Amino acid sequence: MIKQMPAFLISLLIATFLLVTQTTMTNLFWLKSINMPVDLYVVLSSMATDLVGMNSKGAFPVIGLIFVGLLVAFVTARIISIRISINKPILYAMAGGAALLAIVVLMPLAFYNLDLIAGARTLAGKVYLICAGMLAGYYFGSHPAKGVSNEI
Amino acid sequence: MKFNNVRVFCVSLLLCSGIAASNGENLDIETVAEGLEHPWGVTFLSETEMLVTELSGNLRRVSNGVLSPEPIGGVPEVLFAGQGGLSDVAIDPNFADNSLIYLSFSAPDSDQPKLNQLNVIQARLDGNVLVDHKTILKSDPPRKTAAHYGARLAFLADGTLLIASGDGFNYREQAQGLDNHFGKILRFNTDGSIPQDNPFTTSQDALPEIWSYGHRNPQGLVVTNGGIVYQHEHGPQGGDEINLILPGKNYGWPAITYGVDYSGAMISPFTNQPGMEQPLKYWDPSIAPSGMTVYNGAMFPQWQGSLFISALVPGDVRRIEMQETNIIEEEILFTEFGRIRNIVSAPDGSLILVTDGEHGKLIRVSAKQ
Questions:
Q1: Under an 8 A CB cutoff, do B260 and A45 touch?
Q2: In this structure, CATH architecture of domain B37-286
Q3: pLDDT given for residue B15 in this prediction
Q4: C-alpha separations of B126 from A149, B33, B120, B363 in Å
């Protein structure tokens, strides 16, 4: 578990960064579409503000939510990998995707269908975020600790 | 000079009486009704009789301070979920002659039952039953969420009906569009037709019932004796607003806002933009403004002309003192009752506070005899 911690933290950062910046860009694309003055400075400062805000100022820290999601998914994947021989990067990619799927699809069911993550309000947004989870999982599955194999 | 002294004395006296009243020393607090299930809207039929909506779907009558055990019949089925249910009630300006009342509520869409809409109906109160129902509004498009309905009703002096319609939470960007009912204040004639002097009646791409747009979740809507329309809306974190509403104006949501999303994300980096109205005031942190009345009673002369706003968080009432259309003071009152869902002025000049929740109460605040 400890040996895999660096890879896990990097995969957590990948998923968090992709989720936060997707929400930022979703908002900014729409603002640009109605001719609000969105320029490069606004894009960069908004991303920085959201990376801090979504992890410290919201009702829940996004990184904490993803941490829990990925931890459960990767442990489950590890258990599956003991029983079934399967390509590890693919297995963990599926686990990462499942974690984000749970966050963006199941969470609204608990809140009267409210999508609390703005970037997840559209189907395209949900698919993107599931792909972000898959990418994070793929990274984790591709970086086993030396001497071990994808264990968490 | 003498005149100035007298004026200073009078102002001091007035302020002192206000402070005394505000401190509760000169107030009678009386529970009028309790055991109400999520009470939401209140209107007076007469000096002694009022109607109260319960979000769960009942319309209740309180006569001479006694809650009638039997709900009023003929109320349509509502969707009681999330923030949805039977919301506001208002009486027709000619109620004494026509017995018409108006209800706002959420209900499933008849064609797509998984979706729902904000509805406004007119009905005649015949004894203890509503009859002759007529649909004024079915908000379009329907939504999947059970939140941000707005749902507040108010009448302008010309007898037209204003309806506050919220952004549906997931559909906030549509508050900037003129082809839908999300995030709008709408204006109708009481027969359901659209007044010809609405601001967008000549626009090809706009719904003619739209009165103003760019709103989030407007749950406070009042018209003063002078015809000024004030509205407040729940913002996101740090963006609750009170606005002076003018026809045809864009109030900016979500292109400009002082709040951030519940996730902590920025909704917009902008707080102002040409062509978009600024609020008279915004609250940061949020107070969750839930209802509003303009006070014109004789019981508290020092409060005449003030707006009273009920707040769910932390649970109090904000007295907003106005000078023309400018806010000059905010006073926090009635902090002891928890979340307050609504506040109305009674015909006798007392104030009725509506506490929130499963076991809501109506609390009358009047001057000590």
A1: no
A2: 6 Propeller (2.120)
A3: 41
A4: 77, 23, 19, 27
